[in-house]
């Protein structure tokens, strides 16, 4: 569902300027796990909604996520050569085009979000406006970009646990959390979600958002080739990470605890939330 929609929403490779559209598609269709769009759809279904009603939000979030990876890999940031098992965007298209490719994906996300054609006809406009603002906030200085700055400033230092938690919640957790709330909110073309449902989903999202980045830190050390990115990138850059502060086994047990906490938070939801429970386990036990 998501791959087909992304293909429709991004200009074709033959469209002028060809290099830019090629680079956007190169990174977007490089084989990412699509965790965030899948979370949006699973959250919609968990409250009794339909996946197809939330695809615009799911795709916009994946575009923002992909832009963030292109910029994250640049020499000025993590300086990595491999992403999703392929040479990074700047290795193929050059740094300048990679920067602009990220810019174009970020901008396209908001074009997609704000185009009423991308929603079922009965989607309430105020809900579309609300998720657009939520996503902007999660991606910006109070969310992902803010966290990325703390990540860069934390290189070569040892942040304490509270500082590290702040860093991980912002650089990664906020976009994961907003994937879930976007899915649930956009499902409201066909139903009304309750405060209890959104509260349960938020607690779930906060726990798996942090767990996701702890698992990513662990994979940087002990992941296999299937992670599709250079191992040891965090050590090379002297990053502040959970394993660097707490060691591998303590970090893993924190991630497992967060997974339990996430599943527990879903107690008010019925078996339609089962995919979300499985995704929580995937996030901490994944190999890529
Ligand atoms: C990697 O995200 C960057 C982080 C926020 C940890 P993913 O592990 O979701 O990367 P893809 O999309 O599957 O490549
Ligand atoms: C990146 O964190 C988080 C983003 C907002 C892109 P990392 O730098 O640890 O992500 P990877 O390991 O390169 O995917
Ligand atoms: Mg980084
Ligand atoms: Mg990185
Ligand atoms: Mg990492």
Any overview of this molecule?
The chain is mostly helical and 288 residues long. Helix content is 66%, strand content 1%. It is built from 14 helices and two strands, in the order H-H-H-H-E-E-H-H-H-H-H-H-H-H-H-H. It has a two-stranded antiparallel sheet with strand order 1-2. It is globular, with a radius of gyration of 18 Å. One magnesium ion is lined by residues 72, 78, 80, 233.
Brief summary of the model shown:
With 288 residues, this protein is an all-alpha fold. It is built from 14 helices and 2 strands.
State mean pLDDT (0 to 100 scale): 98
Radius of gyration: 18 Å
Heteromolecules bound:
3-methylbut-3-enyl trihydrogen diphosphate, magnesium ion
In helices, the fraction of residues equals 55-70%
Q: What's the N-to-C terminus distance?
A: 22 Å
Overall morphology: globular
- Order of strands side by side in the largest beta sheet? 1-2
Q: Which structural class is indicated by helix and strand composition?
A: mainly alpha
Order of helices and strands: HHHHEEHHHHHHHHHH
Number of helices: 14
Quaternary assembly? single chain
- The residue ranges in which pLDDT falls below 50 over 5 or more consecutive positions are none
Query: Which percent band covers the strand fraction?
Result: under 5%
Largest sheet: 2 strands, antiparallel
Query: How many distinct beta strands?
Result: 2
């Amino acid at each position: 569902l998501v791959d087909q929609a992304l293909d429709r929403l991004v200009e074709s490779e033959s469209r002028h300027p060809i290099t830019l559209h090629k680079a956007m598609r190169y990174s977007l269709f490089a084989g990412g796990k699509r965790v965030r769009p899948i979370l949006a759809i699973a959250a919609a279904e968990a409250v009794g909604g339909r996946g197809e009603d939330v695809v615009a939000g799911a795709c916009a979030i994946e575009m923002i996520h992909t832009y963030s990876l292109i910029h994250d890999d640049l020499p000025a940031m993590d300086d990595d050569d491999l992403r999703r098992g392929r040479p990074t965007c700047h290795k193929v298209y050059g740094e300048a085009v990679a920067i602009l490719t990220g810019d174009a994906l970020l901008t396209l996300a908001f074009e997609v979000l704000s185009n009423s054609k991308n929603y079922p006809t009965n989607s309430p406009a105020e809900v579309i406006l609300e998720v657009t603002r939520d996503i902007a906030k999660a991606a910006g200085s109070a969310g992902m970009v803010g966290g990325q700055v703390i990540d860069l400033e934390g290189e070569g230092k040892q942040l304490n646990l509270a500082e590290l938690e702040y860093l991980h919640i912002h650089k990664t957790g906020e976009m994961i959390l907003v994937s879930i709330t976007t899915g649930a909110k956009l499902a409201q073309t066909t139903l009304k979600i309750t405060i209890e449902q959104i509260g349960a989903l938020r607690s779930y999202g906060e726990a798996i958002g942090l767990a996701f980045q702890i698992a990513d830190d662990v994979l940087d050390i002990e992941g296999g080739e299937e992670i599709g990115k250079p191992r040891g990138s965090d050590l090379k850059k002297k990053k502040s990470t959970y394993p660097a502060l707490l060691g591998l086994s303590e970090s893993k047990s924190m991630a497992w605890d967060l997974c339990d906490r996430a599943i527990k938070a879903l107690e008010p939801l019925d078996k339609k939330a089962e995919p979300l429970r499985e995704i929580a386990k995937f996030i901490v036990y994944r190999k890529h």
